[in-house]
Every structure is written in structure tokens, then in C-alpha cells.
């Protein structure tokens, strides 16, 4: 479709296009941040969840095992918290007997063990008995040998680089259970120094307090923060998790999440290199964490806030777990064969009532927090890392613009079904494109604004077409149904804005077709026979007029009046009228033969054709109106019809009509003086057989000058 034709197709659809594009303007305002539409964000999140569930890998990841402090474990070893001595035995069993690759604790051991010697001495000292210096000294000596925290720290130190201990960021600086807030107790060393990001540091979540595990103890374990969600989404669903967080108080620095620390321990990766993106006039933005692993370089795409889209897994065919769970009781009681968990990455978490940390996720309404870490770890190991690219806002804008253009294109379609199909196809195409980009590139791109705007625009457009434009169509059907061929009525009904009922000036070709001697025949025929004869003759003549795209104006007794060039503009209206007249004359012998066989009288006809400017439109009174033509060219056509008998020809054509068909064969009849005109009119009659014409529906034009001319035989001498 050419641009000019497209622009012409938009004429008459101004209000409908404006109504259609109104929701898209809202979508653009939302994308630009000028208008906040929470429903759009919710739909985007739900579409992202559905896409993730559809494409996530299915089944258990055998590389990761979760050691679960479950109800059976509490029943066997007592309520939580357990003694650090028992945790030391758990650590030794997993690192030395089971030979796990990495052990990570999704918990923080912030307080001193309540069963340690100093804690017992403090508890006994609060009792009410007389002070005994000798007893107190002996108690302190014996208590110093009770050190479960030290036992746990030694078990951790025996597996250097293979253990990750949880730390926790807190917003309440100086909390009483926060060792980092106690003087002379320093937090663990950060992953990256405080100046690693420079001006972009403000985008990374900053916290005033870091709650560490086993403060003051040397363990050789890596720290990893266990905060799964810093700022939950509107619906509370965990879709992204932070990989980096910043301690905002001295000494400051950037810490890594439990999942990232565990991944680096399992792959031997050095601290990541921060990859920044720069744009003219803007400060650098964090876009990825670059790490060198044994299998090659891995760029972990993150948001400017250090967040990662969680690459969740799906349950297996039986809707079972995504990871293998092993009860801590089975580990502590030695029920697992030696090396049963060899080379596995083990996360220690809790699912017992009162201990479990449940999170709403796209794959489950209540998922243990330790499993969220496991999903992140699984995605890092696979390199399966969905992410929101930098150009996501631009993509949202482009989607809205493309959807809008396609909806406007749909408005110009003649068929409502075609317009609906274009709009529906645009929305479906956007869904398919986003699905392909996610599946093959891991791109999480916004689409809800474009989909909602497209659906709303399509609904408004269809409603406007049904309630407003369909009323115009019905008016056209009522007005023109009795005048023009049915196929042209359908064409007009599909594009009612192109056709007006108001009077306008046009150059048309008018035909008057009259039956000769019909008054005498009518006086000697029964009314019913006369009615049948007129019906048959006019039906045949009207079919021919319709076939050539003409408009039947009226039947006046034994005369048929028709014209070409309105309401559908036709560049070749003169040729159509002449060929229709020739076909009527050619059809008359067969029609008369049928009349003779039926005992009816035969008829003769005379046809007058003239071309000229007229006024055409819906005319009449308040009680009755009709679509007709008036003007001097109409009167001349009627008078030319009356000249057929004197000149002995069935068709008389005016000079204006003949001038529009210079290549057709003509015979000049001379110049006649017509009543009401000062100068004479040259008249002609066509010669030769009527050339073949295509079906009436094909040669319809929209009033473009220079349209195709029907074929005509070679010119002959007059």
C-alpha cells in the first residue's frame, strides 16, 4: 500500500483514529513516568511469571542439596537454637565424611552460644548465694573449657574456602543483638571496597548495620548476606534478589549475597569485576558482574541496584521438589552412606514450624527462603540468567508506537474482520516476540502497556465502528440499495466516509431509455399483462446497467433513467454508459423472441446519452426523498433520446460523451437545434458491436482522473 493511498484511507476516520489512539497515549505517559498505572505493572509481572513458568527447566538439579532442619530434626535433638557443638558435628559430617564441595548456612549465628562457659557463669552469677572466692575461681577455670562457639569455629576453619556463613543487613543501627554495633567487634571483610562503584554507588541498597555470624571468631568462612528481599514488590512476590549490598557505616564496602558467595566458592571465582555502561551526559551504570570461572568467563547481568532476576526452576512431572532435601537428623545420626553427597553444593536451611522463612514466588505461593538461594545458585551454574536490558524503556515505547500504527492501519480496512485481525495479530505478535526474546536471549522486556493499550484501542475502535459508522452504513444501504448494483452498495457500506448524501456538482453521463409505441400497446393490453411485460423488460435492462456500474435513478412509465459517475466516482463513466446502451440494444432481439413465444407484443427502444455537469444528491421533501440528478445535461439527454426515431438509430449520443471516447467508432448524425439552447448540438451514434466489458465490480474507481479505459475497437472512417 502506497503512502498516498494510506493517507487517503485515513480520511473520514479522524474521530475513530483519535479514540483508538487514546489508550496508547496513556501507555506512553506511563512508560515515560508521567502517569502511574499500577495495573500495568501488575500485568507485566504476571506475564513475566507465566513466561518463566513456561520456559523454566523442569526437575531436580542434582548439583544442589538442601539439608533441612525439619520437625523430625527438632524432635530428635531439641528446640532451636541448637548448641554450636551440634552444628560443629553437622559441619564435620558434611565436609569430612560426605565430602561436599561447598557448605552454606542460610542462617546467622549472631549471639554467643547459651551453653558456652561464659554464658553459664553469667547465668550462675545472677543467682542469690553468698560469694565464695574459691568457688568462683574454680567455676571460671572450668567454664573456660566449655566453648561450643570455638568448636564450631574450628570445624569451619578445617574446611577453608568451602564454607559460607550467613550475615544479615539490618536497618536498626545499634541493635542489642548486633555484634557489629558493639565496640571493638568489626564486621567481616567486604567483597569490594567502598569506592568500587563511585557515583553509581547510590543505586545499590545501603544499610547502616551488618549482623555477622560468630563475631570475633576466626572461621575461614566466606560471608554472604541472606536478605532475599530488601524491598518487596507491590504483590510481595520475589522476582529479583540482590547480589550486592553496601554497608553505609565505617568501614563500609560491598558484600555479596549467600548465593553469589556460594557460587564463587564452588567455581573458584575471584571477586567479580564490575562492568559499567556509560551514556553521554550520564554517570556510569552497573550492568553486570564479570567473573572468571574454571569453564570460562561469566557475565552476570544485574540491574543498577545490583539485583538479579531469579532463574526459577519448575517441579518435575509429578509436581515434586526442585531440589533434593535431606533431613539434618539423617546427617547427624550418620544415616547417609559415606560420600553420598560428594561434590554437591549443600545449603543448610529450616522448614520446621516457627523457623521457616517462606516467600511468595512465581512458582509457589510459599517457598522456603533457602530454596530461593538454591534457584539463584542453579541459574548461575547454568549461565541461565534472565535480565532486564538497558533499552527496556525504549522497547516499551517502540512497542506502543508499532501497535498504534497497526491499529490505525486496521481502521482503514474495509472489512471489520480484517481490522480486528490486524489489531489482534499485533497484540499476539508482541507476545510471541517477547516469548522468543526471553527463550533465546533471556530478555525480560515490558509488554503490558502495549498489550493493554492495543486491546483497549481495538475495543474502542470496534465499538466506534459498530455504534457510529454502522449507522452511516445503514443509511447508505437504505438510500442507495434501490439505485446501484448490490456489489457497489457493499463497497460503499464498507467505506461510508467516501460517499455523501449531500448535493454536490459532478460531471456525469446520463441515460434515458424509452420504449417506442408503448402507449398504443398499453391501451390494448390487460393491466396484469402490461405489468409483467414492464417487469421483464426493466429487469433485463437494469441488470445490464448494474453490470456496467450504473446507478438507476428512476422508472418513468415506459422509460428508464440511469447515470454513471455517482455515488461511486468513475473515471470512465462515459464509456460505461455507451457500452451499457449497446448491450441493451444487443439484448433486445432475444427478449422480443421470448415475448413472441409467450404471445406478448415486441418492443422497440430509443436511448439518449449525454455527459455534462449536474447536481447529484439526496433530494426531495421532508416526506419523501430520493438520490437523483438535475441539470441541463439531464434535460439534453432526455431530448437526445427523442431523436432516435427521426434518425433511424437506437442510440443517440451527445458531443461531450463522444469527446470522452475518441478512439471508439462513431457515425456523426449531424447537428441539431435543441429547444432551450442557442447553438446547435452535434450528435453521434456508436457503430460496431459492443466490446466485451469486465464484471461490474472490477472497474470501479475512486474518482482518480486517468483511470483505466475499457477496451474499444479500432477507429473506422465516418
Summarize the structure in short:
With 718 residues, the protein is α/β, with parallel strands linked by helices. The chain is 39% helix and 19% strand.
The number of E-state strands comes to 25
Q: Helix segment count? A: 21
- Could you tell me how far the N terminus lies from the C terminus, measured between alpha carbons in angstroms? 45 Å
Helix content: 25-40%
Gross geometry: rod-shaped
The stretches of 5 or more residues where confidence is low (pLDDT under 50) are 173-184, 690-718
Largest sheet: 8 strands, mixed
Rg, Å, rounded: 45 Å
Average pLDDT works out at 81
Number of domains: 3
Structural class: alpha/beta
Give the oligomeric state of the chains in this entry, treating copies of one chain as homo and distinct chains as hetero: single chain
Q: Which strand-content bin applies to the residues?
A: 15-25%
Amino acid at each position: 500500500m502506497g503512502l498516498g493511498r494510506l493517507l487517503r484511507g485515513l480520511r473520514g476516520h479522524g474521530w475513530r483514529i483519535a479514540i483508538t489512539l487514546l489508550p496508547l497515549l496513556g501507555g506512553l505517559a506511563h512508560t515515560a513516568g508521567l502517569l502511574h498505572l499500577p495495573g500495568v505493572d501488575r500485568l507485566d509481572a504476571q506475564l513475566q511469571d507465566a513466561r518463566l513458568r513456561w520456559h523454566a527447566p523442569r526437575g531436580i538439579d542434582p548439583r544442589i542439596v538442601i539439608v533441612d532442619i525439619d520437625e523430625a530434626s527438632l524432635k530428635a535433638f531439641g528446640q532451636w537454637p541448637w548448641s554450636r557443638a551440634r552444628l560443629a558435628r553437622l559441619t564435620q559430617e558434611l565436609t569430612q565424611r560426605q565430602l561436599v564441595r561447598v557448605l552454606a548456612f542460610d542462617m546467622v549465628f549472631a549471639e554467643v552460644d547459651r551453653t558456652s562457659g561464659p554464658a553459664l557463669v553469667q547465668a550462675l552469677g545472677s543467682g542469690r548465694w553468698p560469694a565464695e572466692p574459691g568457688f568462683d575461681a574454680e567455676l571460671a577455670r572450668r567454664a573456660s573449657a566449655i566453648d561450643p562457639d570455638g568448636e564450631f569455629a574450628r570445624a569451619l576453619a578445617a574446611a577453608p574456602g568451602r564454607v559460607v556463613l550467613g550475615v544479615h543487613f539490618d536497618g536498626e543501627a545499634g541493635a542489642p543483638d548486633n555484634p557489629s554495633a558493639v565496640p571493638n567487634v568489626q564486621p567481616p571483610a567486604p567483597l569490594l571496597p567502598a569506592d568500587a562503584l563511585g557515583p553509581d554507588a547510590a543505586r545499590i541498597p545501603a544499610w547502616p548495620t551488618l549482623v555477622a555470624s560468630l563475631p570475633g571468631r576466626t572461621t575461614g568462612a566466606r560471608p554472604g548476606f541472606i536478605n532475599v528481599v530488601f524491598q518487596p514488590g507491590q504483590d510481595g512476590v520475589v522476582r529479583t534478589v540482590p547480589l550486592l549490598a553496601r554497608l553505609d557505616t565505617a568501614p563500609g564496602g560491598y558484600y555479596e549475597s549467600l548465593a553469589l558467595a556460594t557460587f564463587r566458592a564452588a567455581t573458584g571465582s575471584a571477586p567479580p569485576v564490575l562492568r559499567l555502561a556509560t551514556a553521554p551526559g550520564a554517570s556510569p551504570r552497573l550492568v553486570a558482574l564479570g567473573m572468571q570461572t574454571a569453564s570460562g568467563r561469566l557475565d552476570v547481568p544485574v540491574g543498577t541496584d545490583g539485583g538479579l532476576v531469579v532463574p526459577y526452576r519448575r517441579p518435575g512431572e509429578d509436581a515434586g521438589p526442585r531440589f533434593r532435601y535431606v533431613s539434618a537428623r539423617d546427617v547427624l545420626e550418620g544415616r547417609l552412606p559415606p560420600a553420598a553427597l560428594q561434590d554437591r553444593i549443600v545449603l543448610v536451611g529450616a522448614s520446621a514450624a516457627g523457623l521457616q522463612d517462606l516467600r511468595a514466588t512465581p512458582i509457589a505461593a510459599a517457598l522456603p527462603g533457602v530454596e530461593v538461594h538454591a534457584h539463584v545458585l542453579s541459574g548461575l551454574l547454568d549461565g541461565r540468567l534472565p535480565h532486564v536490558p538497558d533499552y527496556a524503556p525504549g522497547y516499551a515505547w517502540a512497542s506502543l508506537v508499532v501497535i498504534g500504527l497497526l491499529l490505525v492501519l486496521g481502521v482503514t480496512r474495509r472489512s471489520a474482520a480484517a481490522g480486528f485481525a490486524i489489531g489482534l495479530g499485533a497484540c499476539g505478535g508482541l507476545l510471541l516476540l517477547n516469548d522468543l526474546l526471553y527463550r533465546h536471549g533471556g530478555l525480560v522486556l515490558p509488554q503490558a502497556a502495549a498489550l493493554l493499550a492495543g486491546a483497549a484501542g481495538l475495543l474502542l475502535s470496534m465499538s466506534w465502528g459498530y455504534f457510529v459508522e454502522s449507522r452511516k452504513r445503514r443509511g447508505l444501504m437504505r438510500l442507495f440499495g434501490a439505485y446501484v448494483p448490490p456489489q457497489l452498495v457493499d463497497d460503499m457500506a464498507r467505506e461510508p466516509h467516501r460517499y455523501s448524501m449531500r448535493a454536490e456538482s459532478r460531471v456525469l453521463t446520463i441515460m434515458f431509455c424509452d420504449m417506442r409505441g408503448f402507449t398504443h400497446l398499453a391501451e390494448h393490453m390487460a393491466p396484469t399483462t402490461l405489468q409483467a411485460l414492464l417487469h421483464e423488460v426493466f429487469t433485463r435492462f437494469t441488470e445490464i446497467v448494474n453490470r456496467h456500474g450504473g446507478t438507476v435513478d428512476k422508472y418513468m412509465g415506459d422509460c428508464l433513467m440511469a447515470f454513471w459517475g455517482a455515488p461511486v466516482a468513475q473515471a470512465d463513466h462515459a464509456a460505461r454508459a455507451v457500452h451499457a446502451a449497446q448491450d441493451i440494444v444487443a439484448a433486445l432481439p432475444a427478449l422480443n423472441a421470448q415475448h413472441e413465444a409467450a404471445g406478448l407484443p415486441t418492443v422497440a427502444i430509443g436511448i439518449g446519452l449525454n455527459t455534462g455537469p449536474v447536481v447529484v444528491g439526496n433530494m426531495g421533501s421532508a416526506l419523501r426523498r430520493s438520490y437523483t440528478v438535475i441539470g441541463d445535461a439531464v434535460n439534453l439527454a432526455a431530448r437526445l433520446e427523442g431523436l432516435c426515431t427521426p434518425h433511424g438509430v437506437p442510440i443517440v449520443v451527445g458531443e461531450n460523451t463522444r469527446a470522452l471516447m475518441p478512439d471508439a467508432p462513431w457515425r456523426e448524425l449531424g447537428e441539431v437545434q435543441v429547444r432551450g439552447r442557442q447553438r446547435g448540438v452535434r450528435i453521434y451514434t456508436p457503430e460496431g458491436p459492443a466490446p466485451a466489458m469486465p464484471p461490474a465490480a472490477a472497474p470501479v474507481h475512486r474518482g482518480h482522473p486517468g483511470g483505466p479505459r475499457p477496451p474499444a475497437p479500432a477507429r473506422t472512417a465516418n
